[in-house]
Design brief:
Elements: H1 7-30, H2 37-50, E1 54-55, E2 67-71, E3 74-76, E4 90-99, E5 102-111, H3 117-136, H4 143-156, E6 160-161, E7 167-169, E8 176-180, E9 197-200, E10 203-205, E11 211-213, E12 220-222, E13 228-230, E14 233-237, E15 242-244
Bound molecules: 2-amino-4-trifluoromethylsulfanyl-butyric acid and cobalt (II) ion.
Length: 248
């Protein structure tokens, strides 16, 4: 069931998003060769808690951190630890905030120093996929229009699209209906309406779309070990416009 949000609810999600934005900003500033993924997690947690908010991922299905950090062939849900970030890595930062009961969710993939041209293109195209998806995310369209926007742009640029994971409604919980696939998907294709708040999150692979789960039970990697990129915004739909709440 899709739960619509009032403008007061959206104000709350916007506040959670502002704190998330600050955390993302602090992490972007700190991201450099030599920092560990655990230090990145600590930055996110410190900013979020300093604002009186709660990291949305910490403890979610027993997830052990505030940040998902996914490097190179890691697609999503990389767990922070002792790994040291290197020049040439592409680093996905995915974080969530709960503030006064409202949830926000956001991700970005950033290059560390000089990265390969193919990696740079992958990041650019993934961002463009998200931008096109947000353009398609307007009241009156359908969820499938978002899926199509992501898929078409990725394929036109020679990349492929992860199938096993998708975007989602967000706001009262981290994951709500509807599921927002990043490729054309048979089945329910609900109409987008004012009051919907959704997290749109293309996951785009340089090679095969196929992924596998590492033994840690969380980290998703590409099957061919080629790079993957991930971007995510929480957006709110109004009658006549769509607002990116996590813009940063
Ligand atoms: N960030 C993921 C999403 O976008 C959820 C993370 S799962 C968690 O939906 F367990 F790490 F929290
Ligand atoms: Co999400």
């Amino acid at each position: 069931m899709i739960e619509l949000k009032t403008s007061e609810d959206i104000d709350g999600i916007r506040q959670a998003s502002g704190i998330l934005h600050e955390a993302m900003d602090a992490m972007e500033k700190a991201l450099a060769p030599g920092i560990t993924t655990r230090e990145m997690d600590a930055i996110a947690r410190r900013v979020i808690e300093s604002r009186g908010a709660t990291p949305a991922f910490l403890g979610y299905y027993d997830y052990p951190a505030s940040l998902c950090i996914s490097i190179n062939e890691e697609v999503i849900h990389g767990i922070p630890g002792s790994r040291i970030i290197q020049e040439g890595d592409i680093v996905g930062l995915d974080c969530g905030v709960i503030y006064h009961g409202y949830f926000s969710d956001c991700a970005v993939t950033l290059p560390v120093g000089k990265v390969s041209r193919e990696a740079e293109k992958l990041i650019t195209v993934t961002k463009e996929c998200l931008a096109r998806a947000i353009e398609a995310a307007k009241a009156g369209n359908r969820v499938g229009d978002i899926s199509k926007a992501v898929y078409t742009h990725a394929r036109e640029n020679g990349f492929d699209v992860v199938r096993e994971y998708c975007g989602h409604g967000v706001g009262f919980n981290l994951h709500e209906d509807p599921q927002i696939y990043n490729y054309p998907h048979a089945g329910a294709n609900p109409k987008l309406k004012a009051g919907m708040v959704v997290a749109i999150e293309p996951m785009i692979n340089e090679g095969t779309w196929k992924v596998e789960l590492l033994k840690d039970g969380w980290t998703v990697v590409t099957q061919d070990k080629k790079n993957s990129a991930h971007c995510e915004h929480t957006v709110a739909l109004f009658e006549d416009r769509t607002e990116i709440l996590t813009k940063w």
